[in-house]
Amino acid sequence: MARKKSTFVCQSCGAVTNRWAGRCESCGEWNSIIEEVESAGIGSSPKTIRGKSGRVVELVPLSGEDKPAPRIETGVGELDRVTGGGFVKGSVLLLGGDPGIGKSTLLIQASAALTHHGHSVVYISGEEAIDQVRMRAARLGLAEATVQLAAETSVEDILATLTSGPPPQMVVIDSIQTLWTEAADSAPGTVTQVRASAQAMIRYAKQTGAAVILVGHVTKDGQIAGPRVVEHMVDGVLHFEGDSGHQFRILRAIKNRFGPTDEIGVFEMTGGGLTQVANPSAMFLGERNTSTPGAAVLAGMEGSRPLLVEIQALVAQSPLGTPRRAVVGWDSSRLSMILAVLDAHCGVRLSSHDVYLNVAGGMKISEPAADLAVAAALVSSLAGIALPSDCVYFGEVSLSGAVRPVSHTASRIKESAKLGFAKAVVPEASQKSIKSAELELSNLSTLTDLVARIASGTEILTQDTQEP
């Protein structure tokens, strides 16, 4: 009998080595390498079978009739928006999020909405008993929904149950880390088991045409636990984000083979479950104080949706030798760049000040169009001058101090006018490319112009911030 070959797999990043080590060389984690026995089952490497040749695959030309992917609309508008119009038949989505953020609540509400439209849905729970799922559905007022439930973790039993009758139109697996298959000789939750279980569910989705939703746990740094190869295998990756101090939840598309990426859907967590937020901009600006210095409104974009959020900055004299730099909801390295540009080109020296920056409402902004709003908030806080309450800002700041144009200018202006804003500070190139009768556009060519306009409300900012 041939001896089975064993490998050593890191349970944190999935790196494979030929010998055991206390520390993984790929991710740096300690005591994460476990010995696993290779097998020829699901998830193992392909084996060469002698005496059997492959089948001939039909080759087709690149040109042909473009058919839209068949979709299953849930009726939950924000969820359909993020997925690109609904779940595609035969696709597999991976939904990740922090514990208690509302992943199961969202999927139960989506499953119930699908059954109301006549679709068949199977909900497989590997973490909770059937009674626990029923109690959550009762709290949400969805006890009468015809969702079929099961509490199982064996992949073979799940597939046997799903293939015993007519294939459902959607299958929810909560969660992929709890599944295990006999084809892999390792404990549930390990890299091998997660990869093997995901591959089995993907094969089922492609063969039957059912849409499969896999729930994934996240690590302490916000990444979906398990091997990254699972994210490459699935058709879409969704992240459910939110701050424990806010009731708002954001569903973000990280990967989508059948729709746009970086699209977001906004929900509000209430006692009756998740409710859709029809106007996120009004929600994020609902409680802002218009007379406080250090607050600027950003007309941003999230995917194809214009979104207005408030950028809050606080600049205070630091008693420490090394001033603090605290950022919530934005890139800390980009804040350092804006501070350097203000110092080098505008004479606004903040090297002896503590700087705190926050995006109100628990939003996370990553687009460079927020540079101008951040710079305006910083200068406003340092000068103690409140910015106009009816003005929005957007534009990218380069290292030379120039204000560069950004995309979707028309959408940003239209959303600002809809919410009652009257002015917009935009890059000079953007004003030349678009004319707006809805807002009064004020153009900027350099960041120095912005500092001068804010400082015009008083004689000087501080003794350190005068123009050289």
Automatic annotation (TrEMBL):
The middle region has homology to RecA with ATPase motifs including the RadA KNRFG motif, while the C-terminus is homologous to Lon protease. Keywords: ATP-binding, DNA damage, DNA repair, DNA-binding, Hydrolase, Metal-binding, Nucleotide-binding, Stress response, Zinc, Zinc-finger. A motif (RadA KNRFG motif) lies at residues 255-259. Belongs to the RecA family. RadA subfamily. One of its GO terms (molecular function) is ATP-dependent DNA damage sensor activity. The lineage of its organism: Bacteria, Pseudomonadati, Pseudomonadota, Alphaproteobacteria, Hyphomicrobiales. Plays a role in repairing double-strand DNA breaks, probably involving stabilizing or processing branched DNA or blocked replication forks. NCBIfam families: sms. ATP binds at residues 97-104. Residues 68-218 form the RecA family profile domain. GO terms for biological process: recombinational repair. InterPro entries: AAA+_ATPase, DNA_repair_RadA, P-loop_NTPase, RecA_ATP-bd, Ribosomal_Su5_D2-typ_SF, Ribsml_uS5_D2-typ_fold_subgr, Rubredoxin_2. One of its GO terms (cellular component) is cytosol. SMART domains: AAA. It comes from the Bacteria. The keyword Transcription does not apply. Residues 354-468 are annotated as: Lon-protease-like. The keyword Transport does not apply. This is DNA repair protein RadA.
